[in-house]
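QA checklist item 7 of 12: single-chain prediction sanity check.
[x] sequence parsed
[x] length recorded as 629
[x] structure emitted
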Amino acid sequence: MNKEKLIYKFLAVSFLLCMACNVILQAKAYQSFKVSIYVRAYEVDKMKDMHWLDSTWTVISRQLDVDKVYLETHRDLLIVDDATLEQAKKFFHDRGIETAGGITYTINEANSFETFCYSNPEHRKMVQEIAEHTAKHFDEFILDDFFFTNCKSDGEIKAKGAQSWTDYRLKLMTEAGRDLVLKPAKKVNPHVKVIIKYPNWYDHFQGLGFNLEEGPQLFDGIWTGTETRDPSGNQHLQNYLSYNVIRYFDNLRPGHNGGGWVDSGGLSLGMDRYAEQLHLTMLTKTPEIILFAYNQLLGVKLSPKFLTPWQGMGTSFNYNEMTAPIRLKDGTSVEPTTMARIAGVVLKQTDKLIHKLGNPIGIESYKPFHAAGDDFLQNYLGMIGLPMDMHPAFPEDQQVVLLTAQAARDPEIVTKIKKQLQSGRDVVITSNLLKAISEKLAEISELRCTDLKAFVNDFGRYGRSGRDLLIPQVQYYTNDAWEMVSAGRPLTGGVSGYSILLRAPYATGNMYVLTIPDDMGNLYDFPAKALNEIRRVMSKDVGVYIEAPSKVGLFVYDNKTLVVENFNDEPVEVHIVTSDKVMKLESLEDEGVLTPLPAEPVQNRRPVTPKNSFRLLLLPHSYKAFLYK
């Protein structure tokens, strides 16, 4: 064989080997999404020590399949040097792992999340230099959720002048994003994609400068914080928010929401709470999840304290599976040691389901930009089995639209409500929205929600709450509107009753008023039968609803699939209610099939839509998924 043929053969073999290597390197660890890890600047800086980097990555990668890492360049005035960033990038690329950059714009995170002061010339210069430094090393970087400002220095007070803090900060941070981050970064690297991560406290964004009206259009992409941790913590983040917030951000700029972001905060309540956050994030069909952070996946050790009392019952998230030895590709086994193992098992389990689900759908709720009122209410409603889908524009193609107090920000809201009702469709408003715009709503129905309150615990034929609930009194003219669900203390055999769900007909539609307790958490105390009636009224567009106690979530998709999830610490019985055309529910996890229960006799005067009901027993903190035909 002559020299030219040998060279040709060598090049051909080398090309094929390279192609094979690329296929191996690009092989997806998951079928339906990517799993990524965010690495804080503190840990990236340690990656100058190759022994530390290799040994820590071995611990994590043996327990969790990873597609991508985000290497942070700055946090708390620590800037990672060029050589360390490039060394870390090469390390991960050599192992087939994608890399991107990250920035946390904090001065001192430990000092009440101290941010930069964006009217301070020195701070502005530093913000720009950090963006340029990051763009030099990465074609993509994400801003961790501190690209807001809580600075109230003398300089900021002077710059604000007579403006409200909200108006001032919205303009300030929009300008800073454009002129201090995006433009400088793209000047250094025209190919760079800059993503802004929005955190979980979306209803309060405007007060700190997060601009949901302009930001999603300004940046190349957005990301969603889905950390719900302990729902009783100082942010009051209900479990359902891990799903709901992604759906809302998806609707801000469709196609530009890159994924969800979860940290280890929920582990304080046991392994199930952390697992639920991961699982709920992926039920949105988001393309990627970022696990925060490298140090937590490495340093939070598996412990019996993560074992919950209901483990061993056959629940969806199985602690024994999490702590079982891991079989490696070379045939050896290792013992799991950190929370990375929990993430690995949960995400692999969820991955088997996600590709079977269609696009999420729900009860559409209108939230105008920068609106306040009924803060985070949709997450509480999600926890009582109402699948939520929040939008920044009034939905015009739905049979039922939910309006909370936030809709009062829209000066044309009554016109939009009347149009909806005159087309033969329905609107559900909250008691707080009624209170905010009762004079305007008098064009539709003369209803009032004053400062008067009532204690209630008896919902009549719908059951009892078990505790006293403080609610606003919704008042109306008899026979112009009518109570569908009432409550008193007591109602049965008592002297006073108050509206929980009120119907006020207008044209060919209905305006319903849903009374929200002063403590939103008391929605969970509503009797199951009262919740069932609320679900029935609000679920026309979804085509399916549940009959169950509170703290049971329903997730519905446009390919006639659904997921029902129990957030309670005890088993619950759930009835899945469909049209009478649906004759079976097929499990998406095994070969199980549910068939309809025998029809119950009609016990009231109201016309009833024919329906079928399917009985399901759900274990604590467990879910079931079905296809209905």
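[x] summary fact logged: The two ends are 66 Å apart (CA to CA).
[ ] second reviewer sign-off
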